[in-house]
Amino acid sequence: MEILIISGLSGSGKSQAASYLEDIGYYTVDNLPAEMMVKFAEFCVASGGNYNRVAFVYDLRTGEPYTKLLDALETMRSSGINCRMLFLEASAESIVRRYKETRRIHPLAGKERSIAQAIQLEVEMMRPLRDHADFIIDTTAFSTGKLRSELLNIFGTQSDRMGLNINVLSFGFKHGIPIEADLVFDVRFMPNPFYVPGLKNQTGLDGDVRDFVFSFQQTHDFMEQLEKMLSFLLPLYSEEGKTVLVIAIGCTGGHHRSVAVAHKLAEYLAGANYQVTENHRDISR
């Protein structure tokens, strides 16, 4: 059994961290006093494996001395439980900005104490816990995706690290750009099979249409540049923690050019060992 204590400074991202850990199988409990953690751990052990990974969020709201948490940690570890602590922190400037954005009040701020003073006080109060932490993450420069990626690297299993899932989606501009698209590429500059006798009623999944679309040098040049761009971008998206990326390829109606290019792109990405799904939104319209 594994228990993870998530602690740290107010505004450093503890709630987000708990949510991400919950996504990978942790049972999370927020604002639980230290003595109740020990009782909960005993219950989990007695449950016969129903709660193998548990994360407790512990911060100022408990209103108790931090020595109680350190005592609880020692008690759980001495009973054979794999108990570790994650401490999150961030720069004072970053925390101030986050509180201003959310319009929340720092738990130590008040009429006689500014938020900057509250942050400094909390840093001093939390120092004993930081000194006992197994992992310390500074979230100052982290996006939410980067925090998720960091937590997966530390606490995730191989199955949790599924990598980047790519959905290659063809569409027709006359039906609107897909709202879920992350990257949109317009292939209406390519010659249109719609105006070629015998191809109008076929789609980009048919060999004759694909042969026509890829019979032009500009199509090959476009694919070469697109593949080069994606080979640069996709590892960066993965590093940032993005798990799903929608690449939308559009032509006028979504029947011919966009379908052919999307199909070719999906084949390329699958060959590059990415997890790829291929969809054609407007092919039957």
Structural class: alpha/beta
Distance between the termini: 53 Å
> CATH top level of the largest domain?
Alpha Beta
Into which percentage range does the β-strand content fall? 15-25%
Gyration radius over CA: 26 Å
Total strand count, please?
Answer: 9
Binned, the helix content reads 40-55%
Based on Cα principal axes, name the global outline: elongated
Task: Give the SSE string.
Answer: EHEHEHEHHEHEEHHEHE
CATH architecture identity of the largest domain = 3-Layer(aba) Sandwich
CATH topology of the largest domain: Rossmann fold
Major sheet description: 5 strands, parallel
Residue-averaged pLDDT, rounded?
A: 91
Fourth-tier CATH superfamily name of the largest domain: P-loop containing nucleotide triphosphate hydrolases
Strand order of the largest sheet: 2-3-1-4-5
Low-confidence parts: none
Tell me about this structure.
With 285 residues, the chain is of the alpha/beta class. The chain has two domains: 2-155, Rossmann fold (3-Layer(aba) Sandwich); 165-280, no CATH class. It contains nine helices and nine strands. Strands 2-3-1-4-5 form a five-stranded parallel sheet, with helices on both faces. Helix 1 crosses helix 6. The longest helix has 24 residues, at 217-240. The chain is elongated. The termini are far apart.
